[in-house]
Write a structure and sequence with these properties.
The chain has 16 helices and 21 strands. By secondary structure, the protein is α+β, with helices and mostly antiparallel strands. It has 2 domains: 259 residues, no CATH class; 135 residues, Conserved hypothetical protein from pyrococcus furiosus pfu- 392566-001, domain 2 (2-Layer Sandwich). Strands 1, 4, 5, 6, 8, 9, 10, 11 and 12 form a 9-stranded mixed sheet that branches. It has a 6-stranded antiparallel sheet with strand order 15-17-16-19-14-18, sandwiched between helices. Strands 2-3 form a two-stranded antiparallel ribbon. α4 runs parallel beside α5 and α5 crosses α8. The longest helix is centred in the middle third of the chain and has 17 residues. The two termini are 20 Å apart. The relative contact order is 0.18. It comes from Acutalibacter muris. This is DUF1015 domain-containing protein.
């Protein structure tokens, strides 16, 4: 099963690089150009220079920057192999003030083909993003950011180990980015390392975030073997592992925006939806969200629809309808809210096929319900659909069946910080 390994991380020498809070960044794929420049304004050694390089030859520049920082002692390898405890403390809902804390483990994990059933994906990926990460790996031979994965531990054995180890000392790093407080502990004790590694020997890992980077790591390993290049660490990838039943694990929904349909008729669409859904008008977005919350709590399959004129709640009448539409899929996949929306409404009733969705021709995504409503109100989008979050157990059930959800089915919050540790693939 999962092969978890301690490693010598490449980390900042704060005496030369500066404050750790000015050296880290958000995941590369959610950083705007304005944010990227702000990171560099705060500190020219920010990891964004490596993780999201720009310029005429950005990947070569990242490789040269990495070499320079290592030569000048900005980045140094840890003396001993270790595992790294990573904690995020945050509010799951700023308005409601619900404090959460998620404690996880940063480590190396042996790369496995998905067909082996040890590391399991849950979401489709896009080739463009994989090519970008592949070019960066070729230039730097490092993992700058961590893949986020989940594991099953009903007795919370590993969580108790992490809690005990973290209670023995103050965190090596601690800072707040305004929304999340990030903390990191370094674990070098051989007995502790061995115990944690043994915990994972019988477990599977479920990728929560970072599918592109995992597939890229597989491609990079194949590439090195084809080139006859010896790279000791290429059989492993940097991962952050969290207990899937941890109270601090939060998944937000990703909402759908439909745009560019020339003959869009909302009344005709709602009439067609009556075959599959109970349809209830609601006064505004607040009432729509309340209805979604109620449906989520009570296990209903529902989503909110807004067409600029009015909000409606669509609640599925009979989940059995999906058996005839997707006979080759598992019940776990068929009963996902996002599957119902894509298959019944977007494809069957609106004519937006899967290729169209993948290319984002008439479909785009946002995590913000407010942004979705504004886009419709302004006329930028024809309509929007607000969804409830996918449950963690649904994610794992689909992955366990060897299936992948549509793109943008989940949004794990908070996003892992980049820059605490770097995985140097040239190291054993």
């Amino acid at each position: 099963m999962a092969d978890v390994k301690a490693f010598r991380a490449l980390r900042y020498d704060l005496s030369k690089a500066g404050d750790i809070g000015e050296l880290t960044c958000a995941p590369y794929d959610i950083i705007s150009e304005e944010q990227r420049l702000e990171y560099l304004r705060q500190n020219p050694y920010n990891i964004v220079r490596l993780e999201l390089p720009k310029g005429e030859d950005p990947y070569a520049q990242a490789g040269e920057t990495l070499r320079s920082w290592r030569e000048n002692g900005i980045l140094k390898l840890d003396m001993d192999p270790g595992l790294y405890i990573y904690e995020m403390e945050f509010l799951a809902n700023v308005d409601r003030g619900e404090p959460k804390k998620l404690r996880s483990l940063i480590c190396r994990v042996r790369l496995e083909e998905f067909s082996a059933g040890i590391v399991l994906p849950h979401e489709e990926t896009l080739s463009k993003a994989k090519q970008d990460r592949f070019d960066l790996m070729c230039a730097a031979n490092c993992n700058f950011s961590s893949i986020y994965s989940l594991y099953q531990d009903p007795e919370h054995v590993t969580r108790r180990r992490l809690d005990n180890l973290a209670s023995d000392s103050a965190p090596r790093y601690e800072f707040s980015d305004g929304l999340v407080t990030h903390r990191l502990w370094v674990v070098n004790d051989p007995a502790a390392l061995e115990a944690i590694q043994e915990d994972f020997a019988g477990r599977k890992l479920y990728i929560a975030d970072g599918h592109h980077r995992y597939e890229t790591a597989l491609n990079y390993r194949r590439h090195l073997k084809e080139q006859g290049t010896d790279c000791p660490g290429s059989d492993f990838v940097l991962m952050t592992l969290a207990d899937m039943s941890d109270d601090g694990l939060v998944v937000f929904p990703t909402h759908r925006l439909v745009r560019g349909l020339e003959k869009f008729d909302s009344q005709q669409l709602l009439k067609a939806c009556e075959e599959y859904f109970d349809i209830s008008p609601v006064e505004d977005s607040v009432k729509a969200q309340s209805a979604l919350d109620y449906g989520y709590i009570n296990g209903k399959h529902c989503f909110a629809f807004y067409d600029k004129e009015k909000w409606h709640i669509l609640t599925l009448k009979d989940a059995g309808v999906m058996e005839s539409l997707l006979p080759d899929k598992s019940s776990a996949y068929r009963e996902l809210d996002v599957t119902l929306l894509h298959t019944l409404v977007l494809e069957r009733l609106m004519g937006i096929d899967r290729e169209n969705m993948a290319n984002q021709t008439n479909l785009t995504y946002t995590r913000s319900a407010e942004e979705a409503a504004r886009s419709v109100a302004s006329g930028e989008s024809n309509c929007c659909f607000l969804l409830n979050p996918t449950r963690v157990e649904e994610i794992c059930s689909v992955a366990s069946c060897g299936e992948k959800m549509p793109q943008k089915s989940t949004y794990f919050y908070p996003k892992l910080i980049t820059g605490f540790v770097i995985n140097d693939l040239s190291q054993n």
